[in-house]
């Protein structure tokens, strides 16, 4: 069943710095336009009822107070990418909760969501970065991309997006084999021709995780006489259009251009994962996601799947007060985030601190904010 695209999610860019005064349950300095800076520096912070000086524990019943400018580096990807748009929107709202003369410098040095935990670990290359909950969890627990475990990474907020594991067969493959599920494909050890993203991408890792949930590997598929090709998005689209491949597995959002075009130009079959398969993927670090009917061309019914959403990561070396105000900024300006990036409309502050959406434990300062608001943070 091919899907008709219900809508293409527009991604807006909001990078303007705000000049305003806002209350925060206690005293809070005014936000200000960022001052130029080239390096990140430590922040002096103090509880609202004490003098400034070093990291501050949150006073009983009260919030932190920052008493000196904050200077942070936020690693994103190239200008024009979805990752950069996310970073620019987050930078804008974060500045509204930081002291005057603070600065958040966006760089384009992030390797993407899979490798992001590596560069923020212990503030190795930046203080703030966006990743996905699954890769953040795998990187912390086991290491990722051949690197050791990232133990000095903490979360500020998760659930910033609505991406999902997308499994598709070509209709020609379904008509020729009668196979309609990936569980049946594995049971029959069918020599399927698979095309997926390159190594190091969440699309490629998600394909591996789907087969792992079924008790096999991509190498097993090759041993059955199948083909596993790893390439770029355009080549995946054209290869499926030309019936060079039978199926693909990716991790994308509604409106992703290559998949949208593929479904408009070629008969594709949307694969529903089995309940047991999804449950195992959730144990690995994904969360349940529903893909609405009409997301893709001729998709007449909703699809149940899983996904790993965007999460804001920081180094554990960040002081508690700064982490507190970053969490506050994201949660209390969620409408502005949604106006800037449509996928952020799914963001819910009441679940943003839960491990299923963060992948790694919250920074103590961020956790203090969620506890203060009465939001779950486990």
Order of helices and strands: EEEHEHEHEEHHEHHEHEHEHEEEHHHH
CATH architect. name of the largest domain: 3-Layer(aba) Sandwich
The gyration radius over C-alpha positions equals 22 Å
| Euclidean distance between termini CA atoms | 39 Å
Instruction: Report the helical percentage.
Output: 25-40%
Q: Which descriptor suits the 3D outline?
A: elongated
Low-confidence stretches: 1-61
**What fraction of residues sit in β-strands?**
15-25%
Return the CATH topology of the largest domain.
D-Maltodextrin-Binding Protein, domain 2
Number of helices: 14
- Briefly note the structural class of the backbone: alpha/beta
The overall strand count is 14
For the record, what CATH class of the largest domain applies? Alpha Beta
CATH homologous superfamily assignment of the largest domain: Periplasmic binding protein-like II
What does the main sheet amount to? 5 strands, mixed
Instruction: Return the average pLDDT rounded to an integer.
Output: 87
State the domain count. Answer: 2
Q: Give the strand order, joined by hyphens, for the main sheet.
A: 4-3-5-14-6
């Amino acid at each position: 069943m091919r899907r008709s695209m219900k809508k293409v999610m527009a991604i807006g860019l909001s990078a303007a710095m705000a000049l305003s005064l806002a209350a925060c349950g206690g005293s809070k300095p005014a936000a200000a336009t960022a001052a130029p800076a080239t390096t990140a520096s430590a922040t002096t912070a103090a509880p609202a009822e004490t003098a400034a000086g070093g990291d501050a524990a949150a006073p009983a019943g009260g919030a932190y107070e920052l008493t000196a400018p904050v200077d942070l580096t936020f690693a994103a990807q190239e200008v024009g990418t979805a990752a950069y748009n996310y970073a620019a929107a987050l930078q804008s709202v974060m500045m509204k909760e930081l002291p005057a003369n603070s600065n958040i410098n966006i760089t384009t040095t992030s390797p993407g969501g899979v490798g992001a935990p590596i560069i923020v670990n212990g503030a190795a290359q930046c203080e703030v970065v966006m990743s996905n909950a699954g890769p953040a969890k795998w990187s912390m627990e086991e290491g990722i991309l051949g690197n050791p475990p990232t133990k000095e990474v903490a979360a500020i907020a998760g659930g910033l997006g609505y991406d999902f594991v997308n499994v598709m067969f070509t209709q020609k493959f379904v008509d020729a084999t009668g196979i309609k599920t990936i569980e049946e494909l594995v049971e029959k050890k069918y020599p399927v021709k698979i095309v997926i993203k390159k190594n190091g991408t969440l699309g490629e890792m998600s394909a591996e995780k789907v087969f792992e949930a079924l008790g096999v590997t991509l190498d097993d598929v090759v041993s059955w006489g199948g083909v596993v090709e790893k390439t770029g998005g355009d080549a995946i689209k054209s290869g499926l259009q030309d019936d060079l491949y039978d199926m693909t597995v990716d991790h994308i959002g509604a409106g992703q251009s290559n998949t949208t075009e593929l479904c408009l130009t070629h008969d594709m079959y949307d694969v529903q994962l089995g309940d047991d398969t999804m449950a195992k993927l959730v144990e690995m670090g994904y969360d349940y996601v529903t893909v609405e009917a009409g997301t893709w061309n001729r998709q007449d019914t909703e699809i149940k799947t899983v996904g790993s959403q965007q999460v804001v990561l920081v180094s554990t070396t960040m002081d508690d007060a700064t982490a507190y105000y970053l969490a506050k900024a994201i949660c209390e300006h969620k409408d502005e985030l949604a106006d800037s990036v449509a996928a952020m409309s799914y963001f819910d502050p009441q679940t943003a601190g839960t491990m299923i959406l963060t992948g790694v434990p919250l920074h103590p300062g961020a956790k203090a904010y969620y506890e203060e608001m009465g939001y779950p943070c486990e």
